[in-house]
Sequence to fold (339 residues):
Amino acid sequence: MRQGLLVAPHSFAVRETDRPIPGPDEVVVAVDTAGICGSDLHIYHGENPVIRPPVVMGHEFSGSIAAAGPGVDAQPGQRVIIYPLVACGKCVYCQAGQPNRCPDMRFVGAIGYDGAFAEYVLAPSAGVMALPDALSFGDGAMIEPVAFATHAAGKIPDVARAGVLVLGAGTIGNLVAQVAKAYGARHVGITDVLDGKLRTARAVGIEATCNSAKEDVEAWVKEQFGPAGPEVTFDCVALATTVKQAVRLTRRGGNVFLVGVPTGELPVPLVELLIGETSLSGVYCYVPGDFHEAIRLVLAGKVHTRPLVSATFGLDEIGEAFAYAVDRKNEAIKVAIRP
Ligand SMILES: [Zn+2]
Ligand SMILES: [Zn+2]
Fold:
């Protein structure tokens, strides 16, 4: 089978390798569609402190069961998506139903398992989830980012009363805004520095948008949420500028959630955090229930993912796909690979 291996930063090799054979509690999935994640781009640039090439990435994917290991209840041909987080099952976090906090976690396409930028991928059978008939394989590959957004938006306290500001209109920011809206937030607004991303946000029903490179964000936020600002802000960018904006623009007593992955340590305006009694917390991945909730939201038409998929490439074009995702940031929200 063919597999797209990142051999060094910015350099892929599509190599021929043996098709994996599933052991007990494992399946092999014939990959249909796999999305490129923002975290894959960090690895591509060599900016991830832990995950370095050589690596086969790809953790947002759909496909069909090609083979099931001994005793695994999965039918060949069954359409599936995979919950890619593989937790230890034994630590205090796993015991408490928080596998996303497991310190020993492995991850399909990142840690311990080759990913889905390949014709076939080996995965633990515990992560198999059926892809409903009403969803295409393309829809299926978007469930992972929707689950991330569902996990994030699920943290909004008293959502019906909450004004929700989202910084960053890439895939995750867009989806967090959509899920917050689906959960009945009183108002949702989104910012980005690229007009193309804001256009996509409006196309999926997030009408209040602001280009923070061109407009006065502070004035816009006051106009949208009232002079005190939003109750909740999600920073889906995680740059020094957005962390500062998030703390300063959020209502006193409100919540700032860090969703984007910072590439290093960032300054946080602690005096404002202190005076405002503002809470700052991280959001990381998802639990399996977030996948079920994501499927429910997409099936119900409450979250739209198709307008987010900007381009699709074959596996042989994986280098071009990543270059496109990096160079065409304005248009490229989600880039998919179909092995
Ligand atoms: Zn992802
Ligand atoms: Zn654990």
Notes: The chain has a mean pLDDT of 97. The pocket of zinc ion (ligand 1) is lined by residues 37, 39, 59-60, 144-145 (CB under 6 Å). The chain has eleven helices and 18 strands.
